[in-house]
Amino acid sequence: MGNLELFHAGLSGLELGLADARIEQLERYFQELKKWNSRYNLVAQAEDRQLIETHFLDSLTLLPLLDPCPEPGLVDVGSGAGFPGLVLKIARPDLLVTLVEPRQKRTAFLRQVIRILGLPGIQVRETRLEKAAPEFAEWRGAIPLFTSRAFTAIAGCLELCEPFTAPGGRVICMKGRKAEAELAEWRGNQPDSPFALTRTVETTLPFSATHRKLLIFTKNSG
Q1: pLDDT value, residue 15
Q2: CA distance 142 to 72
Q3: Is the pTM of this model over 0.85?
Q4: What is the 3-state secondary structure (H, E, C) of the chain?
């Protein structure tokens, strides 16, 4: 099965629809990832089917959760090789996206893909998201939607995003089998958190049947 066919089969398994032009862009992104990965190890080496499922299809499970997102748009923290933020931008061209990634090789890769695909309305910031960093001052209390696959703990992710999340804004954490343990840790360590877990979406990846959880946290408006 060719890569385009893998994308089509995976999307069908997730019951998602994308225009052919968007799928072709995702496939070009995938080819560029493979080229760079042979030199820089952006993601763990694997067969094409696994790479497409683990990174691209997993990212697309967020697609139904993307409500209209006002400026400054979606911020993907610790974007790595662009998952999920760059994938979501391709699937939703209207979405404003910022990819925050501190590692130079990965930001060079992200900028290359954005250039090749001619994507407007997306920027890369080669830095870490830090509470006191002056370059993020304009984001304080302003970001409507954060996404992240990079954080190993929910508590750390929410603590970092909290100063920048708009009242009523959301943080989507992508998790696997350790989700419940991380939730318990967050509730125990941050009982006064301004976030509430407002929705949990369970998904199954189409090729491996791996179970995933999308945890949606909403910041109170007070």
Answers
A1: 96
A2: 7
A3: yes
A4: CCHHHHHHHHHHHCCCCCCHHHHHHHHHHHHHHHHHHHHHCCCCCCCHHHHHHHHHHHHHCCHHHCCCCCCCCEEEECCCCCCCHHHHHHHCCCCCEEEECCCHHHHHHHHHHHHHHCCCCEEEECCCCCCCCHHHHHHCCCEEEEEECCCCCHHHHHHHHHHHEEEEEEEEEEECCCHHHHHHHHHHHCCCCCEEEEEEEEEECCCCCCEEEEEEEEECCC
Which residues, listed in sequence order, are joined to residue 201 by a DSSP beta bridge?
214
Domains of the chain with bracketed CATH: 3-219 (3.40.50.150)
**pLDDT tens profile 42-63:** 999 999 999 999 999 999 999 9
CA neighbor of 110 nearest in space, from 133, 85, 131: 85
**87: Cα separation from own chain's centroid:** 8
User: CA-to-CA distance for 60 and 16, rounded, in angstroms?
Assistant: 8
